[in-house]
Amino acid sequence: MRALIQRVTEASVSVDGTVVGQTGPGLMILVCAMQGDDPGSARALADKILKLRIFRDDMGKTNRSLADVGGGALVVSQFTLAADTARGNRPGFSAAAAPDIGRALYEVFADHLASQGVSVGRGVFGAEMQVALVNDGPMTIWLDR
Predict the structure, then answer these.
(1) CA 111, CA 108: separation in Å to the nearest integer?
(2) How confident is residue 92, by pLDDT bands cut at 50, 70 and 90?
(3) What is the pLDDT of residues 18-76, one digit of tens each?
(4) Is 6 one of the annotated active-site residues of the chain?
């Protein structure tokens, strides 16, 4: 699994002009299932993100996790995170999991975060989505698991 996370003060995702998912302070998580991933990969990535110490403590140091601060998450499927740009100018996406597997692993990932007490907003798998966010910091991290 692969994810791009951004610490946000707020984020939302819309489909056809209607907000379908949102979060307040917490994380915007773009997530992609890769070929060879399984439900264990999805849960492991969710656990890693949940425990990353990327939120400020009382001294202003990035020493607290999403779990520590009680933050929410907006989880959006993003197969383009699998882009291979090694050759030519047109990215290839063959490293991404097949859509049916990608959808299932996206759900496992989001459900696992929710099972750990995180308020989770979601995008719509496979839909054309518009994402709006206010990046806090900015703090943006790429994760492969």
Answers:
(1) 5
(2) very high
(3) 999 999 999 999 999 999 999 999 999 999 999 999 999 999 999 999 999 999 999 99
(4) no
Instruction: Please give the Cα distance from 53 to 24 (Å, whole number).
Output: 18
Q: Is 79 a catalytic residue?
A: yes
Cβ atoms 5, 29 nearer than 8 A: yes
Cα 9-11-12 angle, rounded to 5 deg: 160
Q: What is the topology classification, in CATH, of domain 2-144?
A: D-tyrosyl-trna(Tyr) Deacylase; Chain: A; (3.50.80)
Catalytic entry in 6, 23, 55, 78? 78
Average pLDDT over residues 90-111: 97
80, 93, 130, 140: which is the annotated catalytic residue?
80
Task: Reply yes or no on whether 80 is catalytic.
Answer: yes
Write down the residue that tokens 């707020």 correspond to. 10
| pTM of the shown model | 0.96
